[in-house]
Design a protein that fits this description.
The chain is elongated. It has one domain. The termini are far apart. It has 118 residues and is mainly α.
Length: 118
C-alpha cells in the first residue's frame, strides 16, 4: 500500500475508535440514565426488578462494565503503548478498533465476564 493510503486508513481507524469507543456508548449510557416517558412505560417490569437490585437494571450493569473496561483499555493504550511503542506498531489503531468492537458487541458480552457483576 502507498504511504498516503496507509495514513488515510490510520486516520479513519482513529476516528472509528473514537466513534465506537466513546460516542455510541456515551449515547447508550445517556439513554439508560435518562429514559423517556415512553421507555419508562415499555420497561415498567424492568424497573420493578431494578428495585430488587439496588436500582440497577441489566442495561446499567452492562454500561458500567463497558466503561470500566474502556478506562482500563484507555490507560493501557494511551499511556503504556502509544507513549512508548505505539507509533512503531503499524496496525495499532486497526487492532484497537477490533478490540473496542469486541468489548462493545452484546454477542460476546466480554465486559460482563471481565467485571463479573452479579
Amino acid at each position: 500500500m502507498s504511504h498516503s493510503l496507509t495514513q488515510l486508513m490510520h486516520s479513519l481507524c482513529r476516528v472509528g475508535c473514537l466513534a465506537v469507543g466513546l460516542m455510541y456508548p456515551a449515547y447508550q449510557t445517556y439513554l439508560v440514565a435518562h429514559p423517556t416517558a415512553l421507555q419508562k412505560k415499555q420497561f415498567k417490569n424492568i424497573s420493578n426488578n431494578a428495585n430488587n437490585n439496588n436500582g440497577f437494571t441489566e442495561e446499567h450493569k452492562k454500561w458500567h462494565s463497558y466503561w470500566i473496561c474502556y478506562a482500563i483499555n484507555y490507560v493501557h493504550d494511551e499511556v503504556v503503548i502509544e507513549g512508548s511503542i505505539g507509533h512503531a506498531i503499524e496496525w495499532f489503531y486497526e487492532f484497537k478498533l477490533i478490540v473496542l468492537l469486541y468489548l462493545l458487541l452484546p454477542r460476546f458480552n466480554v465486559c460482563r465476564l471481565l467485571i463479573l457483576f452479579d
